[in-house]
Amino acid sequence: MKMNTTLTEGEVMKAAYTRRDFFKTVGVGSLSVATPAFSASTKPHIVVVGGGFSGATCAKYLKLWGGSSIEVTVIEPNSSYVSPVLSNLVLNGQRTISALTFDYASHASNYQVTMLHQSVMHIDKTGKMLTLGNGQQVSYDKLVLAPGIDFVTPNPYDFDKVPHAWIAGEQTTILKRKLDSMVDGDTFVMTVPAAPYRCPPGPYERACVVADYLKNTKGFTNSSIIVLDANSTFTVEAATFGAKFNSYGIDYRTDCVVTHVDDATSTVRFRQNGSTDSISATVLNVIPNQKAAKLIFDAGLNDGNWAPVNLLSYESTLTRDIFIIGDSHASGQPKAGHIGNGEAKICADAILRQLSNIALYPSPKTNSACYSPVSSTEASWLAAVFKYEGGQMVLAKVDSGAPSARNYQNMFNWSGNLFDDTFS
Ligand SMILES: Cc1cc2nc3c(=O)[nH]c(=O)nc-3n(C[C@H](O)[C@H](O)[C@H](O)COP(=O)(O)OP(=O)(O)OC[C@H]3O[C@@H](n4cnc5c(N)ncnc54)[C@H](O)[C@@H]3O)c2cc1C
Question: Which fold does the domain 161-289 belong to in CATH?
Fold first, then answer.
């Protein structure tokens, strides 16, 4: 099955709403200037913060659809991006970090996006001004925030000693190194965060990949693999992961709330059904609970752990002209790269419509796909379509595929499309 990464209504919108519409309204290449503030001499400046799946896609599509009538700047501290998608395959040696690393060369050369490799430290919402890590100030007309996630830990501890590997790159390498140093009889313990969290099948996928690696690649017969899930059951694909966990002999415990992590002894303490317990592991992989990235909290754009948005545009419901896409925003949609790519297109279209005084597209749809490797040769998949209804994105369709070698190959077609559509 070939998954298409561009199935959002953005495609439809693109047909109905062309660059000529935008130029006509803002007056570029036409005789009338409907919106003088956004005339050719003062092009609207759209700043995108974060160059992950959602931010990089949004910047690219803003320029594809808005052309030379707008200025787009991406602010991202890193000169390249390491994809969390497929990063569990680094753990079993099926992929390298460099194969999952993408730069922003196309954004600069093909789409004329300005790249600033800095962190945003402060947002002045009234003055529409950003302060960067080097002290530079950048003004914006529209601001898109796509900064991803932050972690909620029960106590401070050293992620280098107890890696999460939930933001890919150095963390993935640390966990891989620890797995490789295990000997038969050692114990691997990982935790699953309370929903909602980034990539619903991801933790279960990781447990399967690690179990397969330890048993079938390293040939261990005496090691234990223990999964402590904060949720009361598998959050997705219960039949698939339940069967795989059984076949690997994974010790799966539900309703486990992590209460303390000791990085010196690799011990996790947790509460389960009113009792307290603790386990010391040779390799401890705590995936902490999650919330929107720090920048969202610093700017007062959160309501609880996530940022509330209008799902027709992804504009913050708390502040005008600030849009929040990807894992940081609040909605019933999964926190995933594929759907972040779709949200980014809806957001780009909405911004261009706002600048052109065109009504927002009233019935956007998004779709999500997660392929889950469960060994070094088999993968399952889960796909969902969401549609806008009554102010929410509601689930319109869901489908899944059982683990197979064919799906393992299709996983690379799907991810290749997603990587290309985001970074090429
Ligand atoms: C193991 C694993 C497997 C996964 N598999 C899948 C899958 O099969 N399918 C799928 O769709 N998704 C999958 N995901 C989820 C997917 O990777 C995330 O949902 C996606 O990366 C979120 O994109 P984002 O743009 O919101 O955030 P990110 O990709 O995290 O990007 C955020 C960017 O913002 C930058 N940033 C943060 N703060 C600032 C600041 N103050 N100033 C400037 N820049 C800043 C960061 O440097 C970062 O580059 C998986 C995740 C994991 C961990």
Answer: FAD/NAD(P)-binding domain (3.50.50)
pLDDT one-digit tens code per residue, 3-40: 344 334 333 334 333 444 444 443 332 323 233 334 44
**What CATH number matches the domain at 9-148+293-366+410-423, 3.40.920.10, 3.30.565.10, 3.40.50.10800, 3.50.50.60?**
3.50.50.60
Q: Which of these, 322, 350, 297, 346, lies nearest to 141 by C-alpha position?
A: 322
Q: What percent of the chain has pLDDT over 70?
A: 90
- Cβ of residue 199 lying under 6 Å from some atom of ligand 1: yes
Is the CB–ligand 1 distance for residue 48 below 6 Å?
A: no
Length of the chain: 424
Domains 9-148+293-366+410-423 and 161-289 share a fold: yes
- pTM of the full structure: 0.92
Break the chain into its structural domains and give their ranges. Answer: 9-148+293-366+410-423, 161-289
Mutate to test the pocket of ligand 1, among 53, 60, 102 (most ligand atoms within 8 A of CB): 53
Q: Tell me which H or E stretch contains 14.
A: helix 9-16
Distance CA 221, CA 34 (A): 72
Find all residues with CB under 8 Å of 3, minimum gap 6, and list them.
338, 369, 381, 383, 410, 413, 414, 417
pLDDT tens-digit readout, 332-368: 999 999 999 999 999 999 999 999 999 999 999 999 9
**DSSP letter, residue 29:** T
Q: What share of the chain is helix, strand, coil (3-state, %, to 5)?
A: 30, 30, 40
